[in-house]
Input
Amino acid sequence: MGRKYCISVDLEGVACVAGTYGQGLAEGTRNFTFAINQGTREANAAAKALFDSGAEEVVIWDCHGTGINLDYSAFDSRCKFIIGAGSRLRFPSIDESYDGVLFIGYHAYDTPKATLAHVYSSSTFVSHKINGKEIGELQLDAAIAGKRGVKTLFVSSDDICVAQAKESFPWIRTVETKKALAWNNCISKHPDAVCEEIYDEVTKLVVEQDKMQAYTIEMPFELTVSYKRIEYAQGCNLHNPDNTPFEVVDAYTRRGILNDPEDYFRF
Output
């Protein structure tokens, strides 16, 4: 039986995308239309490489914003798509039937100079820590897949996100799309060159994937969330396993215990 893969597609990390000052990468900003097109091209390059290497099924998860971004008609016609929002599942449909997940266009967690760095919402959060260590949505999404035994195989993004990915998943294949200079500033490779690199690296990972691993977080774990506004911290609705609210660390920070990475999205 052929293998089955999920390609999770964000937009901040794709080639030639830097966002708009004070707004990031949102619908209506100048760089957004290009980001949609380039995210489509980069994800499709990965999908083609998988199919050309014998994949039976490739599912594209459009996970930026509300999940309706990419040009689905431009993909290889064998692809399937997870689109939209509202299911209250962070990683819809992911289960043991997948052989691996690839992350296209993701971004770094908050750190100096990383292009468009944030965790889930650049207007809401300052940082997320698991057991005292900074993590991003890349790590949380990989952990949700990993608890089902689904391997993390590939990441493409700026140099800072790629470095964070290699620290968390040292076995993976990567493509560096650009070098970050500041939150809205980067030196990018040509969009065509990035698509070619993605195709080549994904082709290589298929040969190596039996040696790759699923990323897991030891459970239960301590989660610390720092917000950008005091009122957001006050409105935090995260709860410990005994249903008590997360403790108040300071005016901006809440801390508690979760049994499962998916519990973060259930409250």
